Amino acid sequence: MKLVSALCSALLLSLSLSVNADPIVIKYSHVVADTTPKGQAALKFKEIAEKKLPGKVLVQVFPNSQLFGDGKEMEALLLGDVQILAPSLAKFGKYTKKIQIFDLPFLFDDIDAVGRFQNSPKGRELFTSMADKGIVGFGYIHNGMKHFSANKPLRTPADAKGLKFRIQASDVLEAQFKALDANPQKIAFAEVYQALQSGVVDGAENPWANIYTKKFHEVQGYITESGHGVLDYMVIANAKWWDGLPADVKQGLTEAMEESIAYGNKVALTEDDDFKAKALADNKAKLVTLTAAEKMAWRNAMRPVWAQFEADIGKDLIDAALQANTKPVPEKKGKAKSDKK
Fold first, then answer.
1. Does 288 fall in a domain?
2. Rounded to an integer, what distance in angstroms lies between the CA atom of residue 218 and that of residue 195?
3. Which of 66, 100, 223, 262 could cross-link 62 (Cys pair, CB 3.0–4.6 Å)?
């Protein structure tokens, strides 16, 4: 009887410890505001994950470089100091050359083309392109097409000559501005406003969400709506941490990832025009709208960058991206009429 009693006590203690086990703490760090598409996607992930896995996970979201800036966040992920990030696609050149495809200037016609490529087999295979580096990808979050800003109107490629532009740490973006005879400067995102305000750099490239939420339009005289590139993100996790999670937690987090990414993309697509309108309504920066011929001149000036990086990225990926610019032919509704004999 004593043995049975002891076993029952041990079982009850085990169950008690199991029920009262501390939740898995998940640190989700990013460098932009909560009001951006990525910021809203991160908050939605927290909401969904904690709802699907009550008591099992606790998601802590750190926006605006509160935890790590964009120069340190990848290192922090690999060290296990954070578990989830959503870095801009320009940040992955050190880990795989293939994702540099998203930095090629004027490769995609618009954000819909970007989405078609990202959802294609070629786009999705990039999620595992950094597995050997300890990084696993889950999905892409849109932020929007990038536009040039400067303290002078940029209407032709010659207008950019000699100007200093802030860039992310990307070899492709560096080559992009060198193709314009401009001077690229690698500066952390959290320092961009001050760099523009103080004249450390003359201009930058950002989607409307960043331009408005970070108030870049307040320290730039002109915004050229060039749509020359894309600033999107990949949601990633530390692969070792991810592989060590219980199956049920992994399933719940995967579903939360998918739902929050879809939510973030919906926000990005619906709010891009709103951010543009808000930035222009402040009457601090003037809009430069390019004609089709002017935009083609910019594209021709930058297109040699494609060839420069084709060997690293892969011609197959570039061809798949260009194919995504072709809109799919809508299917005809209704049944086809059969021939009468």
1. yes
2. 13
3. 66
